[in-house]
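Workshop exercise sheet. Pairs work together: one partner reads the sequence aloud, the other fills in the structure field after running the prediction. Swap roles for the next sheet.
Pair: D.N. / O.F.
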Amino acid sequence: MSKRKIVIEPVTRVEGHGKVTIKLDENGKVDDAFLHIVEFRGFEKFIQGHPYWEAPVLVQRLCGICPVSHHVAAAKAIDQLVGVDSENLSPTATKLRKLLHYGQVFQSHALHFFYLASPDLLFGVDAPAEKRNIVAVATENQALAKKGILMRKFGQEMIKALAGKKIHGILAVPGGVHKTFTKEEREYFLDGKQIPNIDTMINWCKEIIDFMKTYHTDNANWIDNFAAYHSNHLGLVDKKTGALELYDGRLRSIDAHGNELMNISDNEYGYHFKEAVEPWSYLKFPYMKDLGREKGWNRVGPLARMNVCSHIKTPLAETERLIFKAYTHNKPNNMTMHTHWARLIEMLHCAELMKELLNDPEILGSDLLREGVKRNKGIGIIEAPRGTLIHEYHTDDKGLITKCNLIVSTTHNNEAMNRGVRAVAQEVLNEKPEITEPMLNQVEIAIRAYDPCLSCATHALGQMPLHVTIEDAFGNIVDEKYR
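Structure field:
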């Protein structure tokens, strides 16, 4: 039998566009599998020549799903260019930025879980394609869908109140923020008169986590073993305590067994990371220099963050983290599908943090801007919804950007997603080498668990149909399907 190649293009229910190629050997078994990022990534180049203060506005255009994450990461880097480190920002500016950031993580996690992942969980991998969407979820489980929609709305309304609009708004400026929060804006999220209030968000988060724990109990065999594999894990932790940190902390990496591989300040990242390239993808492959390309790659995101942190500062989320950790006897969790559970714990954490900040009088303060001695290099690192996000800028003496390097969360997860695709393809296709809709969906599920934002990673444009082909060893098409 000639070698065959299965191509899945694009991958669905992710932000952006990608393609999967599964290569079969002469016996019809999986030989290898690849996740291709097929759109060119040019943002790092065409931002050059712009004044540094434009960066927090410009980089939001990387994506319409997580513009706030790029806005905040760029702002942290630009702060350093004007001589202001994180600890030197005013308390009001820091807390308003955090409130914006937590609102973004909250709404993004809600979007992924309810809109993109829940159809796989509720209906199973064998469900027909027309049922794997939020409309079907609303039909089958109206209460769940309604909560998901309103939880995402809460986060979006928080972003709008702080940044002026839900997508591509502006709050952060060099050295701080350009506006404060008003009492009326605060009450909007506390009194529950117009939208469900922050206490309701917290209660709903707890209910959804309980739903997920029940789901794990009922589906343990599948959810524990699907695309599960050992990896390193990377994320920010509190500089002093090692607690989960989403806004400002140290970069910590551990291996699959819990051994610490790295614990560095954000400004040191360039000395410890390199980015490899492959001819079949525009998306790079970051890895830790000391361990090399094969052993130095990391997973990032909710699962990784649960693994690298020592604890969570908010009490309700910490209670849930302890239950999550007990599942693996307090050892690192390498089960890909447990990312959804971790994501919901982070939603609860963000809701608790937003409640704390909404009741903090300093968010109504007027001390918004700080200045220092200007520099020519700035690095901003945050934990975006999908994982560790790095922005680095260099400028000339006129303040024009001469170099930009962006390592987005999906880039960190590139190797992890490829290994997940390979693991699933080998299990599913080796058992029954047949192109079916459920088979294609399982490959996509392995990718969707990471909530990849391919637009952020490549600045993609356009829309592609789903096109699946099988090719023999000579490149002849022996089968072809469209979806």
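Discussion prompt: Residues 247 and 382 are 5 Å apart (CA to CA). What would you look at next?
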